[in-house]
Amino acid sequence: TYVDAAITNAAYSAPTGVVATGSDTPRDLAIRWADQFNVKDYGAAGTNLVDDTADIQQAIDACNTANGGTVYFPRGNYKITNTLTVGSNTRILCDPDAWIKINDTPNKDIFKNKDQSSGNVYIDFDSVNIDSSAVTTGAEPTSGQDYQHASLNMQKVTDLRVRNCRMISDRSGVYMRNNTRFDISHNTFISSGTKIRSTYKAS
Fold first, then answer.
1. Residues 165, 131 contacting (CB under 8 angstroms)
2. pLDDT score of 198
3. Could you read off the pLDDT of 94-122 as tens digits, one per residue?
4. Distance between CA atoms of residues 179 and 152, nearest Å
């Protein structure tokens, strides 16, 4: 991304600011950029060549520290090797060409909510693309387990929304338990091989 040398926060901070098209109110450039927590601003490469897990989690944590907001994935392929934990009042949003990919790490969920004991409120997955087709071990639950690996593991969430997402997996797409008020719709589940498990629990 090219940014002209003159387009700096010093040049466009209060009282000058930046005025958005159609608006008449100037806003500080740094504040405008902070409207979304862009994972690339926290170091994620999106090349599928390096592990982006820690950088993505840092962006999510920053969102949680700010009492919520949108964590945005620009176009790219984001390699992760461990579960990403999402807190309350958080929206996860992907560019149509942004994919979150996990390698062959068995028994790891892609996303789970932060507090599965006392619960979270308002978590929104909007147009999130997840590819866990590389996970070839831990595909089926063992005795006494409901699942081994899920794209989304959401438990005790009040106001959960999963819409317009795409998930490539041979395991559970969305695992839900004890959630209140949820909208799971307009999603595409793709099996890369044998089958996809559709696991759903709510009470």
1. no
2. 46
3. 999 999 998 767 678 899 999 999 999 99
4. 13
Beta strands in the chain (DSSP E): 36-38, 47-51, 69-73, 76-80, 84-86, 90-94, 98-102, 111-113, 120-126, 129-131, 150-155, 157-163, 166-168, 172-177, 180-185, 188-190
What's the pLDDT score for residue 66? Answer: 93
Matching residue, tokens 């090219």: 2
| Matching residue, tokens 């978590």 | 123
Do 186 and 162 form a contact (C-beta atoms < 8 A)? Answer: no
Q: Cis peptide leading into 15, omega within 30 of 0?
A: yes
112 three-class SS: strand
Instruction: Give the pair of three-digit tokens for residue 183.
Output: 């909208």
